[in-house]
Write a structure and sequence with these properties.
Elements (H helix, E strand, L loop, with lengths): L6 E4 L5 H9 L5 E4 L4 H8 L3 E4 L6 H12 L12 E5 L11 E4 L4 H30 L17 E5 L5 H9 L3 E5 L2 H10 L4 E4 L5 H12 L9 E4 L3 H7 L6 E4 L3 H29 L13 H18 L3 E8 L4 H14 L5 E4 L5 E6 L3 H18 L12 E7 L6 H10 L3
Parallel strand pairs: 1-2, 1-3, 3-4, 4-5, 6-7, 6-8, 8-9, 9-10
Antiparallel strand pairs: 11-13, 11-14, 12-13
Helix pairs in contact: 1-4, 2-3, 4-9, 5-9, 7-8
Amino acid sequence: MALQGSFVVVTDSPAPDLVEALRAAGGFPIVEARWADAPAALAAVEPEAVLLADSCAAANPAAALAKALADRPTAGERAFVPVLARTREDGSAVFPDALTIAASAPVERIVNRLGAALRIRTLHSTVLRRTRMLAAHGELPPELPRTDPLDEAAVLLAGRGRSYPALSVAVGERVGVIGALGVESAARALHARAIDGVVIGDGFGPRIVEALLTVLAEDVRFRDLPVAVLGGHPGPVEQFAPHLPNLDRIAEGPQRLVERFLPLVRLHAFGERLRRMLKSLDAKGMIDPDTGLLAHEAFWRDLNRAVDDAEKRGVGLSIARFSFDGSDRRSSLDAARLLARLMRQVDFACREADNSIFAVFTATDLRAAHVVARRLASVLKNTTMAPDRKRVGIAAAVTLATLRPTDSVDSLLTRVVGGAA
């Protein structure tokens, strides 16, 4: 992709290949700085991104650059600055959140990965600009959550070899894990729910790995998805790397995979958060940026309108309440976002403070509502992340009520909460 804006390349030795690749892609100006001078360069040019072309030999300059990056105001003023670090296969990134790439990777791959990160920076800039515009007109825009995006991220783990249990534990300690033992189950998970990364473990032959990467490369939705292949299979990885900028082969084991992979997962989850926020801003706050469902006030307003319309037209209307025993915020958000993807366009829903979800099925009688609610509950049970984030499956208790001629909104809600149809 074409790059725009300025970039800082940090290196104590010349990196003409990287600088020339950035310049050829459209980057300008490109400032080369030694590690000791990097904080000053960062303050002088306001870069779009920082590229660490080599490792820092001393701790103090690295700590100074980390502090300069951390001290930049981002939440309400400026978009984040991605940091991309060239790293030896047996080495660690200078910063825990840096997006690593192998030092031996072609410069074209570095530019592609940088482009993927800059697409999310552009989203962040757009959200900040739109938020400021609303605030200038006296409106109260929704705020971006300040929690770590990893707290709500989900990773698809495909594999069936010896490393699968260790991978599941290592990844599951940080993010939600969705297991898949084959190509078919992995493809179903990719299309059923939002995924922030894919790990392909051992136990698969080259053809299966190639089939999985083909599924990812051929769908534009997965273009920027972080993908890590553990161990072998250099051929398929090299073949698909030009089409999947965040694809890596990591041979050092589960812990090193997590170390290099999770910063990319965090960035992808942040991008998904920004997309939900843009939808909320487009809807003038009627959509909850956390879930993609209706915001609380918008839901009750639409419910009153739907009840009035159903009574005037003489059509059915049903409401379901999905409650989750033992759920936490993470698992209830997971369920709400999944419902937002599954529900019909004519229906609407919201998530309550107790983690339950109300869903309204318009022009739907009780019998049809039972069918729809059972299907939704089944998908939630087999797809949502459990509170411990290491397994899939949380049962939803569903109560239903249908609109009667004598009903008001209050009486309808009383029956759905009490479980009387």
